[in-house]
Structure of Prephenate dehydrogenase:
Amino acid sequence: MKNIYIIGVGLIGGSIAKDVKKLNPDILIYGVDKNEAHLDEALSLNLIDEKAIFEDLYKADLVILSIPVDATESLLPEILNKVSDNTLVIDSGSTKVNICKVVENHPKRRNFLATHPIAGTEFSGPSAAIEGLFVNKTNIICEIEKTAFKLQERALTIFKIMGMNLRYMNPEAHDKHIAYVSHLSHISAFMLGKTVIEKEKNERDIFDLAGSGFASTVRLAKSSPHMWTPIFKQNKTNVIETLDEYINNLTKFKEFMEADNFDDIFNEMENTNHIKDILNGIA
Amino acid sequence: MKNIYIIGVGLIGGSIAKDVKKLNPDILIYGVDKNEAHLDEALSLNLIDEKAIFEDLYKADLVILSIPVDATESLLPEILNKVSDNTLVIDSGSTKVNICKVVENHPKRRNFLATHPIAGTEFSGPSAAIEGLFVNKTNIICEIEKTAFKLQERALTIFKIMGMNLRYMNPEAHDKHIAYVSHLSHISAFMLGKTVIEKEKNERDIFDLAGSGFASTVRLAKSSPHMWTPIFKQNKTNVIETLDEYINNLTKFKEFMEADNFDDIFNEMENTNHIKDILNGIA
């Protein structure tokens, strides 16, 4: 493995670049990005060795896609058309059904591996890339059996150097679960931020009154709408289901309050308290 | 100032104890708590110098109340009955209207100062007490004009050694604003935790699939129901108002998704993105 092409040199692509560089001293990392300023920044930050374009992909041993999921969906078939028979193409999107579907009958389906490394921060762009972002994080791999054996092995080498724990799921299960544990959190944070900003017209007041609890709960509302709009679009059905359940739970909580039923308010909270154990598992 | 009585030796009371100990070398800190195990723990952690009981309060120069807000509401008049004319009594509750109301006509109203130090963690009990918890945090002071001049001064000495920034508000404004920037965050986190736990019966799956984003958004769902139930009860009207607005915003987001109106989904998120600047102010 020598020539690695990273399409999308932001938080995820840039952080992967930092890891794969350690694979061997001969590795050359090429960056492809429709945002020329990001490419220049990635170069000056030494995330990539050279700028490249789509037409160069035939030279790639490995292509990593780290762009919004709608862009992955539309570009992936084209990328597979361009690469050689020995190239491994990996995506990193937060949805898997549409992406797997669009290449299910592609003649080079065996060159592709669908993955979702569950890691990130609320920041974006090349400057957000950090070393060790993926260490001890989970990487969900979908439809591994559709990828060529030799290329599966190559992928495992990469995930090993990234320090990731692998979990295998089908795309439908992935999208359903991830709607709960990731997509819903983002909507919850965005709408909480909106509710508070609408009310507190004077932002100075929010600075002064809000504590670390508020900061933690709305942190994800800093996330990029360019990345998240396509995720919600691709995972529409599952996300709407989670929103329905979340809204129902909030409404029930409100009704308990309206009825002065504070015993059930207490129970609702106590029953959720064992989230502690779950969070210990994450942290 | 020599004899300081802390009623409730948990996260807040214990952390205040660590700070006020630095006031001068002669300070003696007495702990009062209905939980005998907590008192013993506070003693062994050196948070307090001695255990004490309610009947001792006549000896106090300073009484700090750090117990659930319903307990403060019911005990405060009794405490004021017991203390001397030169004692300062401070509470630290997350609601202010009921607490100020219950003593508005008390003959020793001038011995009381209503405060809300906006600091904490999701943990509780004496072992959760930490040094420096209040540094650079906001302390909201209500009805300062009702406290005796001399005791106002004593309070300022204490807040200075805690490192807090002071903001003055009336109790009604306090309860209304804090419903948005604190109480709603807790409900949002509890119900998000509930929604995910209900769905993911297999907790191992939540460990594996959830990332730091989920952990951050539900962190407050670890909070104590004993502390939070009385807060929601006392601030019922304001909290229901915030919940109504939050549920409306979530419902609107869902309706945009159902209508495939992803332009507005994008706008909703982009308009909330400037929460970044607000959070920078907090952090």
Observations:
- Chain B has a mean pLDDT of 94.
- The beta strands of chain B are 3-7, 28-32, 50-51, 62-65, 88-91, 112-117, 138-142, 165-169.
